[in-house]
Amino acid sequence: MKTHGWIPVTGFLLIGLLMLAMAPVAAGQTPEERPGADLFVMPREAVVREKPAPSARALGVLPAGTRLKLVSTGERYLQIEVSSAPASGGPGTGYVAREVTAVFPEGVEGTRDLVTVGRTFARTETYRRLAAAFLLRATERLRDAGTPDPSVELLLGETALVQERAMRRVGVPRWHEAFVNLVADVFRPGTNVVVCQK
């Protein structure tokens, strides 16, 4: 997502809501920034560096919504490990700037924050991919805790698979487009099958 230095007013409101869930930027480790906490790249891409310095060699760029695992904290940089398998040649570990990440601590509070921010972001098409990443991690946490929540899983499915589009000249949503996965949910007959009544 490129904003070129300009974020719409609704973006500021959504980022303000996210700030409630983010750990404060301060020197040293806060209670939310314990090793193992979930980090997400937001609201734009993050440069992964070899060392915690702005002049350090860049190892790669991670897109918004990438889930990371916190290894250790520093004043301006966080040492991270990419949670998913890195792409060919992509960074597996490194350092990212604090200001491009959101921290969600382990436990019930962190999971509740993931659901809240994911639900809010799901309402805005601009942040739908971030919402899907947050809700996916929240459902994984809820399943691991033995308390799966069907409403969160339904919201995840709606957020990840469907995107509303407005019809031209009408300006209101009239149809939906597949957003992430272009797969059928079930097997069906071919398109040239005729159905008749007896």
CATH superfamily of the largest domain: SH3 Domains
Largest sheet: 5 strands, antiparallel
Order of helix and strand elements from N to C terminus: HEEEEEEEHHHEE
Number of helices: 4
Q: What is the CATH architecture term of the largest domain?
A: Roll
Mean pLDDT: 75
Strand order of the largest sheet: 6-5-4-1-7
Number of strands: 9
Please give the structural blueprint.
Blueprint lengths: L8 H13 L16 E4 L4 E4 L8 E5 L4 E7 L3 E6 L10 E5 L3 E4 L3 H15 L5 H17 L5 H12 E5 L6 E6 L20
Antiparallel strand pairs: 1-4, 1-7, 2-3, 4-5, 5-6, 8-9
Helix pairs in contact: 1-2, 2-3, 3-4
Written description of the protein model:
Helices cover 29% and strands 23% of the residues. It is of the alpha+beta class and 198 residues long. The protein folds into 2 domains: 96 residues, SH3 Domains (SH3 type barrels); 71 residues. The protein has a 5-stranded antiparallel β-sheet with strand order 6-5-4-1-7. Strands 2-3 form a two-stranded antiparallel sheet. The protein has a two-stranded antiparallel ribbon with strand order 8-9. A hairpin with a 3-residue loop joins β4 and β5. The longest helix has 17 residues. The radius of gyration is 20 Å and the shape is globular.
